[in-house]
Every structure is written in structure tokens, then in C-alpha cells.
Amino acid sequence: MDYLGFISVLLVAIFGVFLVLKFLLRSVNWWLFEAKLGDKRFSLPPGDLGWPVIGNMWSFLRAFKSSNPDSFISTFVTRFGPVGIYKTVMFGNPSIIVTTPEGCRRVLTDDEAFMPGWPISTVELIGRKSFIGISYEEHKRLRKLTAAPVNGHEALSIYVKYIEDNVILALDKWANMGQIEFLTQLRKLTFRIIMHIFLSSESEQAREALEREYTTLNHGVRAMAINIPGFAYHSALKARKKLVAIFQSVVTARRAQRMENATVQKKDMMDALMDVVDDKGRRLDDEDIIDILIMYLNAGHESSGHVSMWATLFLQNHPEVFQKAKAEQEAIVKNRPPGQVGLTLKEIRQMDYLSKVIDETLRIVTFSFVVFREAMKDINISGYTIPKGWKVLTWFRDIHLDPELYPQPKKFDPDRWDGLIAKAGTFLPFGAGSRLCPGNDLAKLEISIFLHYFLLNYEFERQNPSCPIIYLPHQRPKDNCLGRIKRISPSKFVQEEKH
């Protein structure tokens, strides 16, 4: 055999070994997760279990770190057809991705078949005793305790004044600061509000320290649980440790204060959490309270801050929508009874067009693009089996950007909501079922008040309109929306809205 012939045979042999090795590696997850299912494996959804250990995480991360995050799901659709349910391995677990409204609604509302199934990284960072880690009965009890003080009509009416005072001061301050990271400033604003609701009067220094740690924490929530320096999860665990230490000092101080003065007036959610007693006479311990605080303070400022930013950008980029939304806010001020200063909850409920602007922003951005559940028994959805113990990922992003549900889905068009009543499972910005986001009404209230004052008196000039978008942990401009808040010409509305 001549030299060239030898090289050709060698290359063919190497290629053959590579194919065999690839086949064996791609079969590992099949042996680990499917082989043990017996005949049930024949009714699994189509899909791809990916590589050993990592499954399809690299494909997921590659897509969400590109300019086209939807390529992750579109690859499944291209390979296996538009069936709306696919098998995979995510975050080290055999998983089923559900992308249809009917499937997502079923998974989110059937508490007898599905329980929370968040990745270990999320549970460890947010807390095993937070809403994402506790049992259905415990969740039901704590949600009942916290729902009214956070989302109730009376509570929201009280919060309006505090929120609008802070919004007015923040916008005025930002307009004098020159160039700012708009998203960073909005997150500080929404964090101040949620801190007030839960902890009343923590210092500015404490707020800033907490907010910095939350930023690091969130970068690890969607990461693989690799606790090695240099990885996001490792840094996030350190941030959680600091958050726990800060909250522990706050809880300890509050308990001491209450012991010294048993008749002190109850003023915030911290007091409510300390007072709750279940039907067996049990109270929440420090770990319970701290995990609930970590969860609520995180969820209570991230979504409202990001959505406020995106709504502002969409309004600025669509002048006709901006003017229509502004006209509605001017009419609200104009029709206000003599002597009234500032917004009321009733007026906010009358912001029909602004509500459509917010809903359209929530749809396009889909702040929480996926929710995790776990099957507690074998379940059949759309003719396919979801095995007991497998994770189920309800992929909201695919639903919100489905052209059959929302024509031209990436077009910002608040008018699409005129007369539209979203069918069950087709609009899920805050999830659904018993574990619907407990602060959804508070978030929309904050966003509405911010946009009200922004539309009346300000504009935003973006520094880098073509800045790349980052999609993890949440969709945002890479520069955190660098730009300037600019006052518009003073009008009677400026004076009437000043406190």
C-alpha cells in the first residue's frame, strides 16, 4: 500500500471511530433515562437527550447567548415536527419541553400531577423554604398569608402614594444626572419599593448592598450548578451567603425590638411573617422567613424594573403609540376632581390603553420564559407520556411569539389587544394556576405609575440604539440601556402632578 493509500485508510478509520464514539456517547442518556421505562419509552415525545451529563444545555446556552434565542426550540421543531412537546435533558435531568397553550395550562394547573421542579441551582439560590421549594400545602398557607399584604386592593391603594413619590423623585434625579444606565436605575427604584413593603425602613446603604448581591445571584439562577470559581453559580452562591447574613441581622434585630416592645404597631411583611401561626401552633423560624424574603425581594423588583425599561423603549420607538398613551394620561389628570393631588388606584384601573402597552411588552419580552415542574406520576399529554419524576418545562416564550396566536409576533402593537380575550394558556407572563406569581398586580401597579409620570413629563434618549441584547438571566441591552432622561417642555400637568 502506498503512502497516500495508507493515509486514506487511516482517515477513514479515524472517522469511523469518531462516529462510533459519538453514537455511544449519544446513547448514554438513553440508557440512563429511557431504558428503565420499559414499554413506556415508546410513547415518549420525540426529541433529543443530548450528551452525557450536559444533555442539551450547551445548545440552550449557545442559543440564548446568541442574537436568536428562539433557535433552541426551532431546532426541535425542524428535526421532530411542530408537535409542541419534546424530550430532552436539561440541568442534568430528563425533561419534557411543552410549547402549546393547552399543554402549559395543564401542567401549571394540575397540582395533583405536577409539583415544582426547578433546577437545583435555582432552589439552592432562592431557598429551599421559599415558594419554589416548599410543598403544595405549605405554599398554599404562606401564599394566603402574603397575598393580601402584597397584592390586595387595600394594600395596593396604600402603596400608590409611596410608589408615585419615589417615581417622581427618581425621574427628577435622573434628569439631572446626565448619562445613566437606565435599567440599573430602574432596578434600584423597584428594589426600594419592595424593600419598603417588606422591611419598612432599611437604610439606603443596606438597600444598595442587597441590590448588588441580587444582581450576582440572578446570574446563577439559570446556570448549571457548577460550584467552581469562575462559574456563575459559584459567584451566585457567595452572593446568597451574603444575603442570608444581611437578612439574618435584620431578622435578629426585629425580633429583639419586638421583645422589648410587645405592643409596637405592626407595620410591614416582616411583622406579618413573624406573627403567623399555623393550625398546629407552629411559627416560621428564621430560615423560613429569610428564604421567603430572598424570594419576594428578588421577584418583586427584577420583573417590574425590566418591564418598565422595555415598555419605555417600545414607547419611544413608536411615536404614535407614545402619543396615544400620553393622551390617555393627560385625560386622567384633566378629569381629576378639584383638590385631588396624585394618582388613585381607581385612576390606574382606568388606564385601558396603557394596560395594553404593558401587556404587549410582557408578551414580547416574556420576562420569565420558562417555568419548571416535575411529574408526580405518569401523565399523558397530547398522546405522549410524561414519566413520573421527569421535569416539565413550560416554554412560555414560544407561545407568546407564536404567529398563529399573535400575527407578526415580534411587532409591538398594543392595538392587537382591542377586544382580545386571551384564551387559557395563550398569555402567561406571570404563570398560571395556584403558583401564579404572587406579586403580579403589584408589578403592574409599579409599571403603570412609572409610565404615567414618564409619559407626561419626560423622554428617553438612548445612547446605543443598536446595542446587542443579552437574554440570560433576563432579556436586556448589554449596556443596561445607557442613555439620558430628558424633561419635556413644562406644562400644567407637571404642576398638577407635583406633590
Describe the fold and architecture.
The chain is α+β, with helices and mostly antiparallel strands. The protein has a domain at 132-370 and 436-497: Orthogonal Bundle (Cytochrome p450), CATH 1.10.630. Helix content is 55%, strand content 10%. The protein has helices at 3-34, 57-64, 71-80, 101-109, 120-126, 136-151, 153-175, 182-199, 204-221, 232-260, 269-275, 286-317, 319-334, 345-349, 352-365, 396-400, 440-457, 492-497, and strands at 85-90, 93-98, 114-116, 179-181, 370-375, 379-381, 384-386, 391-395, 458-462, 469-470, 476-477, 482-487. Strands 1-2-8-5-3 form a 5-stranded mixed sheet. A 3-stranded antiparallel sheet has the order 4-12-9. Mean pLDDT is 89; it is low at 492-499.
Q: Quick one: CATH superfamily of the domain at 132-370 and 436-497?
A: Cytochrome P450
CATH architecture tag of the domain at 132-370 and 436-497:
Orthogonal Bundle
Number of H- or I-type helical stretches: 18
SS elements, strand count: 12
Oligomer status: single chain
Strand order of the largest sheet: 1-2-8-5-3
Indicate the CATH class of the domain at 132-370 and 436-497: Mainly Alpha
Helicity, as a percent range: 40-55%
Structural class: alpha+beta
Strand content: 5-15%
